[in-house]
Amino acid sequence: MKLSYLTVEELAYAAQENGSRISDIVLEEQALSMEKTKEDVYFVMKESFHVMRESVQNGMDPDLRSASGLSGGSAYRMKQAVEQGKNHFGTLFGSALSMALAVAEYNSSMGRIVAAPTAGSCGVLPAALISVMESKQLPEDSVVMSLFTASAIGMVIAKNASISGAEGGCQAEVGTASAMAACALTELLGGTPQMVSNSCAIALKNILGLVCDPVAGLVEVPCIKRNALGVANAFTACELSLAGIQSAIPTEEVIQAMKRIGQQMPSSLKETAEGGLAATPTGCRLCREIFG
Questions:
Q1: Cα–Cα distance measured from residue 232 to residue 96, given in angstroms and rounded to the nearest whole number
Q2: What is the 8-class DSSP label of residue 270?
Q3: Would you say 42 and 27 are in contact if contact means Cβ atoms under 8 Å apart?
Q4: What is the pLDDT of residues 234-273, one digit of tens each?
Q5: What is the crossing angle of helices 193-205 and 8-18, to 10°?
Q6: What is the pLDDT of residues 94-139, one digit of tens each?
Q7: What are phi and psi of 270, to 5 degrees?
Q8: pLDDT digit string (tens) for 72-91?
Q9: HSE toward the beta carbon, residue 147, CA cutoff 13 A
Q10: Bond from prior residue into 117 cis (ω within 30 degrees of 0)
Q11: Across-strand partners of 39?
């Protein structure tokens, strides 16, 4: 089987024709194209997942701070709120938020993370999968397999639009991460390949137009909290698609819309720190304090 990774529908159709999950056909195709065994390819993905888990754990350090001083400690505070029963929307949701913050803060502190699909959006996918895995006591092997689905979705978006904030705004980074996480969760929780496709479309639609406006040009403010937004968006898309709700706009058209929106964004809103929150009085003050 040869996959082009040009459309999500190709992935869904191939899985349906084979009576399998998207992750199964992706693992098989990648093993063939890389001339490796499926076990070898799976092992590499499993190692990446272990890095994700380590970054979640390390990012919870209450004393963690970035060199700029802009970030650190938020994940620990969110975790404390969950453990003390002070959050209001359930343990799973609160834990996912704390994990998303943890990985993103760990990245800002020069810790080792998995760029999924980018360093700026690295907290979304681990937070979504690990929080659900722990809450529902799912086997690690199933979660690792869902990463192949997430990866395939990321490849399709990268080929047809962009996963770069400098090219497409934050919709391309956190938006893509949300779609990848939503699709992985949908498959993990028993959704069909077509439900996976709908999850991708819904997640991207929810975040179209999100700009990339890092304060002082650093991937911290507002990037870290947008990782928390991303996991919430992934949960939303997953829940809707698993309930049988379909996207009115086909997935491929949503991806193309994201590309066009990114092209239409001014450069001031694409990672240049010249617009949006970076250009606010407080954003400018923080920049001066950091760089003089």
A1: 8
A2: B
A3: yes
A4: 999 999 999 999 999 999 999 999 999 999 999 999 999 9
A5: 160
A6: 999 999 999 999 999 999 999 999 999 999 999 999 999 999 999 9
A7: -130, 70
A8: 999 999 999 999 999 999 99
A9: 27
A10: yes
A11: none
Residue 22 is which amino acid? I
Residue type, 154: G
The single-letter code of the amino acid at 126 is P
| Number of neighbouring beta carbons within 10 Å of residue 230 | 32
Both structure tokens of 137: 């006591």
For helices 124-136 and 140-160, angle between their N-to-C axes, nearest 10 degrees? 150
Is residue 142 pLDDT above 90, yes or no? Answer: yes
Q: DSSP string covering 148-204, please?
A: HHHHHHHHHHHHHS---HHHH-HHHHHHHHHHHHHHHHHHHTT--HHHHHHHHHHHH
Return the residue matching tokens 């309930």. Answer: 243
In the chain the first and final C-alpha atoms are separated, in Å, by: 56
Cα 70 from Cα 222, distance rounded (Å): 10
Q: Which helix (H) or strand (E) segment is 113 a member of? A: none
Query: Rounded to an integer, what distance in angstroms lies between the CA atom of residue 263 and that of residue 164?
Result: 12
Buried residues in 244-280 as b, exposed as e (16+ CB within 10 A): eeebeebbbebbebbbebbeebeeebbbbbebbebee
Q: Is 273 left (phi over 0), alpha (psi -120 to 50) or beta?
A: left
- Residue 241 tokens, joined: 């698609």
Bond into 222 cis (ω within 30): yes
Instruction: Give the residue from 32, 53, 57 showing the smallest Cα distance to 140.
Output: 53
